[in-house]
Amino acid sequence: MRKFEIDAAQVVGLFMESIFYGIFLVTFLECLRVLFIMDGRLKPAGRIHFTMVFAALAMFLFASLDVAFHLRHNLDVFIYSGGNAIQEFSKTSSWINVMSMGCYVAQTFIGDSILVLDYWGRNWYVVLAPGALWLAGTACGVLTVYTEASLQHDGSLLNANKIVPFITSMLSFTLVTNLLTTSLMVYRIQKIRQRLKHRSDSTTYAPLTNVMRLLIESGLLYTSTIVILFILYMMSNNGQYGVSNAVVQIIGITFNLIITRVDRGEATQPASQNLQCTGATVALQTITVQTTVLSRSAELEVPKASNSTWEMSKRNQNGRVRRKPIK
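The structure assignment produced for this chain is given below.
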């Protein structure tokens, strides 16, 4: 069987990234709509979550730059250089390779920072362990970029002996951070569901089930890609270039999907809006991924998945549940 050479891997990687970049653009535009528009009108400045806006724009910037760098690299090698394609792609310290790695590290930094700080920012003792892993992974990423920029052209590219420890550490920290943070959130929500389940006068816990499903689905999309990338990298398989290109886009896609799905109520809206318990109607004050779930006898807090959350207010006179977006 013919070996999958690096020149073919780079072309396939550009193709894969272009597909995911198209998906990213669609979700990015929808995310901007959610962040800036409410009920067909532009949100007032006080209701715009500028941290999320900055994160979305930064992800768009690095996702676009990564595609541009890889396109430029392919054009240089196949059109302008006139040299051997495999040798050209194997130049580890090429400025395009260094900048592409920088885009990957920056995108991972933003994605993990949202996962760690925005979900758990109000509980510093909970964020301590995931935060340490996040910072360690970022440090390994910065060292990877620096080491790659200073390497000689040894033809090993990302599998050069000096880079391998930093890349494996960065991937390991990223993987553990995602698994740990997602597991902690799901565990906490599950505990709250169990407490609500045994209260005959409490609110429905169906929204919490939907929140938990959203977190698991989003975590699996990102984490499974990191696992595949890690395996290919340890095998020194050139397929790693296509997957690593796709990861830059998948991080942004995951962020955008969480924002838009919560805005549509898929994550927090109960499966049934007939919220009655033991013959009495129960007021569902607030159900979000991070704000509060209120019952007649208890107030419980659920960690935040994003800022575009829904507040379920008391029933109106027609018996319907009104919902209105909150900051």
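Interim note for the steering committee: The longest strand covers residues 310-315. Residues 8 and 238 are 9 Å apart (CA to CA).
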